[in-house]
DNA sequence: AACATATGGAGCC
DNA sequence: TGGCTCCCCTATGT
């Protein structure tokens, strides 16, 4: 529901302002109390710097006669006037190493370094605390003119295709309440999630180690994991809709695997590193994969810019690999147009998203090249008509093209949203709500935190991509980690979230239970499965390296089935 | 409580 | 082009 969520947001925003003031006061007090060594998280050695301060802007000055200070150029600049030399004991900013300010968390509020461009919109002159896109999220849209090309193609589109897009907003329920507990069986961070297309309550999850989990989120004990399908990052999963017992998986180990979900038998479909590891400059990783169900064609892209076509039955490659992004750069994603499966959207590390006709492919044959400010994490056609494109870019902008047959030179909208790249996080990807006939609602996790009741939380945002308005922000006081992986159920009002190693299932809050918010005292139960603790059965630590780049090519692809039973235990984390 | 560490991209030379 | 350094609202284990 838009209205309540909005109200909550405003409320939180005003609370944040109050906190800012608080922390400023705190800052003052602490600095008045002077040389306290309140250096928070170590790292920088020079915790305090003695420095002669010529300017009188500084309030926290102390009188001293430090000989070293007298020799400093700043002192000389004072014209040799004898008298008390003022020096100040100041903190060094961890970000820019300059003095006079500090950056970092003050309680639940993060203070930006004023010397850096805004962490949200990347523009200089302000910080995230004062960024217009943060203060008023609904105005975070950089407008672009609606361009009608007025070509015959556009006319055909307007009359024929546009009618398919429902202009009536469907009932929209935000799955904002944690349904089942904190599911922990992945040993590494979750990298992808997919709902089973036909089997109710079944979710598939992949992690950085390559572990594939298939489990029922209603009957939590019904869980299977496959730990030998892939040897490192599971980047993408696709169901064969012609045979939904088969799952295709793409991995940074350079292989595509097909797994029969009933028998657990896995078969490699493609291995781009048949000769094994011989250094990072030759190791091919697969991030992008999609399936053209009409043609039975598997489309795969590697980390060197090449696209491969694969017949899913014969498992044979069709033609030669085609360079679709800058040579040597990673293709981050592929998506076949849901209405016209031969139309392909690719996104890449070369700051471009490109549209292709897979029937006539050659490196220069892109139907369109969509320029971005930085690496494009993902690009998706809208789920029903396929006539919109939404991309997530590392420049903290979600871009939307409303009409793929129109003028694609610049996006219809750019929505400023915090989803920065961080090497330790799975890249953020804004995804359409597959249930939304109007093709406007998107979901994406948020990087920067907001202060909610003294706790810094990173919500999952529901965005109206036609206006940039924040429809809802989903969060829970017990989830303090960032949630970069989010998947909306194709039919039900359910959201699955991957946050670090945990998985969460959200459902709409029951309308019956009122504003009393009895949820607050209720802690999230943690379901730790047998292998969840990174410890080997013998009690020794799993010291196997996190290195993604070890062999893997020669590994047997026989899927190993493991069953676990869950142990539910209450979690008593106390939050301020 | 203070560490170490996994790790990708940008920007420099 | 390649090799190096920095980035600096991560999460977790020791």
From TrEMBL:
<dbReference type="InterPro" id="IPR036322">
    <property type="entry name" value="WD40_repeat_dom_sf"/>
</dbReference>
<dbReference type="GO" id="GO:0080008">
    <property type="term" value="C:Cul4-RING E3 ubiquitin ligase complex"/>
</dbReference>
<keyword id="KW-0677">Repeat</keyword>
<keyword id="KW-0234">DNA repair</keyword>
<keyword id="KW-0853">WD repeat</keyword>
<dbReference type="GO" id="GO:0006281">
    <property type="term" value="P:DNA repair"/>
</dbReference>
<dbReference type="GO" id="GO:0009411">
    <property type="term" value="P:response to UV"/>
</dbReference>
<dbReference type="GO" id="GO:0003684">
    <property type="term" value="F:damaged DNA binding"/>
</dbReference>
<dbReference type="GO" id="GO:0008270">
    <property type="term" value="F:zinc ion binding"/>
</dbReference>
<keyword id="KW-0539">Nucleus</keyword>
<dbReference type="InterPro" id="IPR001680">
    <property type="entry name" value="WD40_rpt"/>
</dbReference>
<feature type="region of interest" description="Disordered">
    <location>
        <begin position="1"/>
        <end position="82"/>
    </location>
</feature>
<feature type="compositionally biased region" description="Basic residues">
    <location>
        <begin position="555"/>
        <end position="576"/>
    </location>
</feature>
<protein>
    <recommendedName>
        <fullName>UV-damaged DNA-binding protein 2</fullName>
    </recommendedName>
</protein>
<keyword id="KW-0238">DNA-binding</keyword>
<dbReference type="GO" id="GO:0005634">
    <property type="term" value="C:nucleus"/>
</dbReference>
<keyword id="KW-0863">Zinc-finger</keyword>
<keyword id="KW-0227">DNA damage</keyword>
<dbReference type="Pfam" id="PF00400">
    <property type="entry name" value="WD40"/>
</dbReference>
<keyword id="KW-0833">Ubl conjugation pathway</keyword>
<dbReference type="InterPro" id="IPR015943">
    <property type="entry name" value="WD40/YVTN_repeat-like_dom_sf"/>
</dbReference>
<keyword id="KW-0862">Zinc</keyword>
<feature type="region of interest" description="Disordered">
    <location>
        <begin position="507"/>
        <end position="576"/>
    </location>
</feature>
<feature type="compositionally biased region" description="Acidic residues">
    <location>
        <begin position="38"/>
        <end position="64"/>
    </location>
</feature>
<comment type="similarity">
    <text>Belongs to the WD repeat DDB2/WDR76 family.</text>
</comment>
<dbReference type="InterPro" id="IPR033312">
    <property type="entry name" value="DDB2"/>
</dbReference>
<feature type="repeat" description="WD">
    <location>
        <begin position="369"/>
        <end position="402"/>
    </location>
</feature>
<keyword id="KW-0479">Metal-binding</keyword>
<feature type="compositionally biased region" description="Basic and acidic residues">
    <location>
        <begin position="508"/>
        <end position="526"/>
    </location>
</feature>
<feature type="repeat" description="WD">
    <location>
        <begin position="183"/>
        <end position="216"/>
    </location>
</feature>
